[in-house]
Amino acid sequence: MALTMATIVQVVKRWLLWLLLFPAVLTASVAYFTRDMPLEFTSTATVYTGIASGYSITSSESDRIDNTAVNNAFDNLMTTIKSRETLSDVGLRLLAHHLVLRQPRPDQLGANSFKALKALMTPNLKKAIVPGNEEATYERLLAMLKQPEGNTVKSLLYQSGTPYAVESILGRITSSRKGNSDMLDLSCKGTDPAICQQTLLYLIGSFKRRYTSFKTSETGSVVGYFEDQTQTALRNLKAAEDRLTKYSIDNKIINYGEQSKYTAAAKEGITTEYYQEKRNLETANAALGTLNQRITNLGSVLVTNKALNDKRAELDKAQTQLSNAMVYGYSKEAIDKLRATTNRVSDELKGMVARYYDSTHTLESVPQQELMGKYLDNTLENRGATVRLKTMQDRIKEFDQVYDVMAPQGSAIGRFQREISLAEREYFDALHSLNQARLRQKDLEMSGAMTVLDAPSLPMKPLPSSRRMLIIAAGLGGFVLILSIALGQVMLNKSIASPERVEPLTSIPLAAALPLRLPRLEKYDLDFAEHSMLEQLRSRILVDIQEAGLARHSYHLILIFSTRPQQGKTWVGSRISDLFAESGKRVAYLRVDELLNPATSQAKLIAYPQLTNLADVDRLAEFMESTPEQTLSDYDYIFLELPALLNTPMPVQLIGQCDMSVLVVSARTSWSQADQELATLYRRAAYSPVVAVLNDVEPDRLETLMGPLAKRKRELARKKEKKVRDKAAEKAVVKRS
To answer: Tens of pLDDT along 45-94?
Structure first.
């Protein structure tokens, strides 16, 4: 049922007693039970976290703040503060701090709290106390907490309502970020100001340690991993270097690059000299051939002379030694010595040749001494070139042998160097990652070092008492509760209930609404309301019949019907028929069975038998066969009550003959689809007006139809009647006198 302002007002008036009584009782109860309610104190603290704008090792001027990361960090911090382990540590340290106290102290533990702590003391708890040593007491309590059985400490922390319980601490503390800053606001509420302050002190210390530990433990395993990787890479690097060193020692390699470069340069140089000497030898051989033709005799003498041959052999030996020294890179002193020896032997050979040469001129008139000199020079050059060529050839072969050895050495050394380079790169990468991890670890250690900006204060002034608010809330809550129940009943009520809902549900206009009669409603003037509504119904019948102007018969036929039984058709029909009879009309009221009180009725009551062919009845006279002495022409108005349409057929032809139909429906009826279909079918069969009468209506719901008169109290009417009787009695006394 929809709520309107009029409906709400009616509900409030109907439930007014409960709306006043229940909140008053609830308010008085709350006031009584909260009379000894303790005062509460709040201690506050501010901690600088440095999460958003704090400077660290990795900070730079170009760093941008990541709001998502900052919010995530604050969420992690809040979770750490309210975690069970953190609060357990706070409760344990707070308990240890209080256990070592010998007497209450306002700044440590109030008198009432100290007394409550003594009441909690057990033999096991006493064993944990180390007089004057809070830290040792804490360690004993921590050890007791880990015991599986007989654990008093665990009961205090997790199963009690004491200030040391985890749930109690969680309910008393609040934490929030101060705007968008790095500040963290903490507060603790309780009945003992010292406990509030101490709880915050231990909370700050505990969550700072745990948060820093969590942050550093994130990088601890990473640092350990990269330390292992760095050591492994360093061992691999040393092993690769050792393999190269061993190979160099085994193969007598000092610097392969320089050695190979030197060897290639030396071979290139000796090859160039080799070809140069080869050209010199060819030149010398050509010159000797010409000279041999020109000085044949001299050549034979020189060749056959033993002394000259010996000296030539000595010169060859000296030149061979000098050539070897120059090719193999002897020292400068050794080369100079060998060159001096070669020059000396060469001069001696020249002198011997000059002494044996007896001819002064050649056949071409060339001086023999000059010709002899040229011959001797070319001979020496030939011998020297021959010796040097042989030495160079040997040296070139040696270089080829060296190449055969150094070629695989270069490949092996290159492989060793690549292994060393790769191992070195791995080592440097691991070392760089290790340094980054250590830097991150140190950065987290520095950033995790939070600073207490405002230390927890010892509250001196209690908070405003919530008792007054509780009392007000109790009164308002009680009123709202009762009002909600009352309105809920109205909303959940599926019945028609009020006159305003008749026409929207039934599609039939409302003619009257008759009040419900119950003992609890005797305070209302129900007779007046009923009479007024019946008069409205009578007026409606008269007006509608007159407007219709049917005049089919000498009488007016009015049908009283309902879709369901027990709707009050007889009650409504008998009263409206009596009202017509009281006005001087000849009225008959027809009903299917005997009426309850026919002697009290003003209209003629006629009981008709149950008709099996009700759907085929087309004459009203069939209903009066039980009273043959009565005829239809004897009446001005005939009211015919039909059985419930859900139980009996509908007399369609008779409905079409009536002058008006009145649907009676109870306000407590839930109008269904079946009811609607029957009412629609009835309207289709009727050629005359159809109106509805709502029966059993709560008196206060008649206000929209009758105004304040519907709620006039019977007591007022009685007082008025009494005054009238009193005045009449006074007049009678005066007359008699």
So the answer is: 888 877 766 555 555 544 555 667 777 877 888 888 888 888 888 888 88
DSSP 678-708: HHHHHHHH-SS-EEEEEEEE-GGGGHHHHGG
Task: Provide the CA 373 distance to its chain's centre, in angstroms.
Answer: 112
Q: If you count them, how many residues does the chain have?
A: 737
Contact 430/222 with Cβ under 8 angstroms?
A: no
What is the signed CA dihedral for 108, 111, 112, 115, rounded to 10 degrees?
Answer: 100
Closest to 240 measured CA to CA, from 4, 17, 414 = 414
The sheet with strand 183-190 has its strands ordered as 173-177, 183-190, 41-48, 451-454
Q: For residue 568, give the 3-state DSSP assignment.
A: coil
The token duo for 20 is: 């006043």
pTM value surpassing 0.85 = no
Paired tokens of 191 = 């009945």
Instruction: Give the position of tokens 């600073």.
Output: 451
What is the dihedral angle through the alpha carbons of 151, 154, 160, 164, rounded to the nearest 10 degrees? 130
Enter the DSSP assignment of 190: E
Residue 602 DSSP class: S
What is the pLDDT, as a whole number, of residue 664? 94
Helix or strand run (H / E) with residue 587: strand 587-591
Q: Dihedral through CA 712, CA 716, CA 718, CA 721, nearest 10?
A: -100
Q: Is 719 exposed, middle or buried (0-12, 13-18, 19+ CB in 10 A)?
A: exposed
**Which string of DSSP letters, residue by residue, matches 326-374?**
HHTT--HHHHHHHHHHHHHHHHHHHHHHHHH----B-TTS-BHHHHHHH
Backbone angles phi, psi at 714, to 5 degrees: -60, -30
Distances (CA, A) of 707 to 162, 305, 576, 720: 63, 176, 22, 20
Segment holding 640, helix H or strand E? strand 637-641
Cβ atoms of 327 and 274 closer than 8 Å? no
Place of tokens 């500040």: 183
Which stretch of 248-252, 485-489, 731-735 has the lowest confidence by average pLDDT? 731-735
DSSP symbols for 506-525: HSS-EEEEEEP--GGGTTB-
What's the CA gap between 65 and 75, in Å, rounded? 16
Are 483 and 12 in contact by the 8 Å Cβ rule? The answer is: yes
Q: Quote the CA–CA distance of 130 and 596 in Å, as a whole number.
A: 96
Tens of pLDDT, residue by residue over 403-429, are: 666 667 667 777 877 888 888 888 888
Higher pLDDT, 81 or 280: 81
587-591 and 604-607 beta bridge pairing: parallel
- Output the DSSP codes for 97-143: HHHT-SS-BTTTB-HHHHHHHHHH--HHHHHT--TT-HHHHHHHHHH
The residue assigned the tokens 């002198």 is: 351
**Taking the chain, what is the end-to-end CA distance rounded to the nearest angstrom?**
65
Answer positive or negative: Cα dihedral of 482, 486, 489, 491.
negative
